[in-house]
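quick one before i forget lol
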Amino acid sequence: MQWTDRIRQVKIILVVTAVIIAVVSLLVSNSLVKELEDEERNRMEVWAEAMRSLSMADENTDLNLVLKVIDKNNTIPVIVTDDNGNVHLYRNIDLKGEDYEDSMRNAKIISSHMMDDGKVIKIALDDNSSKTEYINVCYDDSIMLKRLAAYPYIQLGVVMLFVVVAIFALLTSKRAEQNKVWVGLSKETAHQLGTPISSLMAWTEILKESYPNDSLIPEMDKDVKRLELIAERFSKIGSLPEPVPTSLMEVISHVIEYMDRRTSSKVSFIREFPLYDITVKINASLFEWVIENLCKNAVDAMEGSGTITLHVEDVADRVVIEVTDTGKGIKKKDIGNVFRPGFTTKKRGWGLGLSLAKRIVEEYHKGKIFVKWSEVGKGTTFRIELKK
């Protein structure tokens, strides 16, 4: 539990660090873009003043510097209009139109958008006349500035995509490695159990012959067969056992009978079965393991006293099995982690039971298993859905 919390804390720290880096990067980039915007506006003010000088020039005015300033602007889109919005000049803008008039209409629309964005410099042509005339120098950000403004977001998007792909690859690799370890451990466990179980079966047969009337020997024989079933379950982990049509109520009843004999008399099992039998395609030994794990967890949650209700329902296209206990319940923050390998709230245990149950239901039987309801101090309901 502590190790799981520590891993979660490390993930949160990494995510927070990444967000801080992204925010700082965007702030620095936006600051640089703002400085470039101010610089371009200053250039356009100089360009506008050059246009004013050109408009008011006479035969004695030296236009070399003015024309040099005007011609030097090869990057910033600019449109010069009068007070009525008529376009007099434009530069660095590709106007699309069928003819000249259509192009001018488009230029007028573009200049209007520039003025709405506040990117306009108003220049008075003649301050001495009774009616002062103005020209509007409308401009837009240069292509380079627009690219610089968009680049940080594109860069962060590419980095985030790379991080997501890397995390997904790592998790997939880790999950595959875990699966290999689990499969190897399960098969090795089944292999190691095989020899002592065979010996126990032989000794049980000898005891039957020697003491045919002993009432304890049949119970020993049941436990040996139980061990054989457990070994068979472990041996099937990692392979894809073929599901066969099986009576669902018979499987669940078998688990209830087994659990009822081995739990406290204070634990009662309630069956809520339909009046007719339901047949589904399952692997009986593995599916019994799922129900058994849910019942064992319920017994532990109730601390040896309470009620376990097993409800079976036949709906339109699936069969529903619900296991409800009257135990201590699951905290809301832990509900999303109950099926994660290694997660457990018990002082002892490996936290593998529910993880294996999820794998058996979802991978081997193509069904669903989830926590339908849980409330601290009242109990928990696990729900399994199987396709017909």
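fyi The first strand starts at residue 78 and ends at 82.
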